[in-house]
Amino acid sequence: MTRIEQQMQFIMEVDKLKNITRQTYIADGTRKENDSEHSWHLALMCILLSEYSNEKMDALKTMTMVLIHDVVEIDAGDTYAYDEAGNLSKRKRELEAAERIFNILPKDQAIYMRELWDEFEAGETPEAKFAITLDKIQPIMLNDLAGGKSWVEHEVKESQIMKRNESTPKGSIELWDFAKNIIEKNINSGNIIGSN
User: Fold this and answer.
1) What are phi and psi of 168, to 5 degrees?
2) Which residues of 43-63 are buried (b: 16+ CB within 10 A; e: fewer)?
3) Where residue 87 falls among pLDDT bands split at 50, 70, 90?
4) pLDDT surpassing 70 at residue 92
């Protein structure tokens, strides 16, 4: 295939993200969001909220990172955050998916996108830390707007949310503080099962 054919094939392959349903409801609670909507939302958040990053970072790189971070779910599926059994095999499924999907691209772009995905997964650079913060707080915000619907359906506990968000402040203390206020409000309203 020509370079442009490989690029177009990848572009059409990632259209499948529109069919990957997440457990988080959209703000009005009428349906669950898909991976494509989630990634777009994170990219917009990155541009608007980058000033709150704990460290100086490249916002365009971070935006690219959040746009491709869930591409692997085309093959691996979306594993619910609090699905203990599903999370045991998640890494293996996602690595296999990354190998197939990114290699649809021409070699130079395949290497770049795969390295960007690996960087996100490692969570060590300023860009990855901020991307992870956005990825973690966006569902908190949507859950709140949807009246805690997903938290109630899954009987989510405060301890689960806090465990999942142990690294969230590494990208932005200010955004994590904002999210903690939302969590506290939903504990008080009974949408999240409190630790006490």
Assistant:
1) -55, -40
2) bebbeebbebbbeebebebbb
3) confident
4) yes
pLDDT tens for residues 67-83? 999 999 999 988 877 77
Structure-token match 């691996």, residue found: 76
* Nearest partner of 52 among 164, 134, 165, 142, judged by Cα: 134
DSSP state letter for 29? S
| CATH for 3-188, options being 3.30.429.10, 1.10.3210.10, 1.10.287.600, 1.50.10.10 | 1.10.3210.10
Average pLDDT score over the chain: 96
Domain ranges of the chain: 3-188
Q: How is 97-164 classified by DSSP, letter by letter? A: HHHHHHTTS-HHHHHHHHHHHHHHHHT-SHHHHHHHHHHHHHHHHHHHHTTTHHHHHTT-BHHHHHHH
| pTM higher than the cut 0.90 | yes
Beta bridge pairs of residue 158: none
